[in-house]
Amino acid sequence: MIDDGDTFSPKVRRWRDVFWLAIFMLHLIALGFVLVLLGLNRFKKSDRLNIDRYTNRVWEHNNGLTENYWPNYAVAGGVGAALGWIWLLLLGSHANLMMKVSVHILTTYLAVISVLCFWCKQFFWGVAFATGAALQFLYVISVVDRLPFTMLVLQKAVKMVWSLPEVMRVAYAFMAVMLLWMGIWSFGAAGVVASSRGDLGRWWLLVVLSVSLFWTGAVLCNTVHVIVSGLVFLVLIHGGRNASPMPPNPLMKSLRYAVTTSFGSICYGSLFTAAIRTLRWKIRGFRSKIGNNECLFCCVDFLFQLVETLVRFFNKYAYVQIAVYGKGFNRAARDAWELFQSTGVEALVAYDCSGAVLLMGTVLGGLITGTCAGVWTWMTWSDRVIMVGSTAMLMGMVLVSVFFYSPTEDYYR
């Protein structure tokens, strides 16, 4: 048995990955300032701060204002939060059904969105969503034999989630924090959409803002991972949350470490783990269904080995090591992967598709959110549908992931 005194003691906790902590905090401060400027520049008055004169681009004659689009983003925030809350509640009573909906409805929904984009003469986005629908269908076909096992894992995870009410409070608290940041972020994004820049300039600004939002959302989501992992460790090692050796207020103990000494490691890992994990799922699925095409198999196998090498240094299981031992991210990721290999658990982890299924639910929630905001935008500002819809979709994904994805995933780790 591991002594939690040797792992949760402040004496063995040091600040890790401080450089990335500083980068993330500076990024938040600088971006917050820029977002407020962008939103205010078009709030109730066009070019209030005279920012337009600092560009050499040819301007459009656009009299859009921030308040024209900010309510659309408010709808996206409300829908995303509501979907995350509803899904989390339904997972407690209908986990198997909700997972099947995530897996099978996503392909259909992507195809429908693709048709709507073609109907609106948005050919690029139509092709993009059609390609996404095809890739999603192929992936589901490639892992269909693993879905029953995945459903059992998720059912067990959900059952454990509902046995710890502290987990729900963590999700609610971080949802409130994310909604607060969403208010600032959407204010600036609405100012960008309303600006007189050309479409290319607006899109570049929105891409930069979206990358920042994705990182911020991932940091908050993974902070919940670390908090819940620490709480679960304490509960399991003492034999239950009501056991006599259980330390007082274990949630606050885990929270304190997550937002102080380990926060830099969370910021660092959040930059890479989501992208690498998604790429690994896709390549693993295609690799198992290639067949006898040796040339294609060699190419995919090379990519697979490359991604597997990256997974050794950037994997989601590092957050458990961070929560329990307070390690830096790279060391935690390597130690977690070596532990899996030495115990033979790696094969079980590779067979499990729980993370992919949860990601499907997150994407579906984002698509529904983007559709709601996009439909409202189309009724008033038809030339801004894709801009508002795509950014609203990202908002929905981030909100659903904090509420739905974070607490559940920690338990099957």
Automatic annotation (TrEMBL):
It is a multi-pass membrane protein. InterPro entries: Choline_transptr-like (IPR007603). Its main location: membrane. It is found in: Cell membrane; Membrane. The keyword Transmembrane helix applies. GO terms for cellular component: plasma membrane. GO terms for molecular function: transmembrane transporter activity. Keywords: Membrane, Transmembrane, Transmembrane helix. The chain crosses the membrane at residues 18-40, 73-91, 97-116, 123-144, 170-192, 204-237, 257-279, 356-379, 385-405. Choline transporter. Belongs to the CTL (choline transporter-like) family. This is Choline transporter-like protein. It comes from Gossypium laxum. The lineage of its organism: Eukaryota, Viridiplantae, Streptophyta, Embryophyta, Tracheophyta.
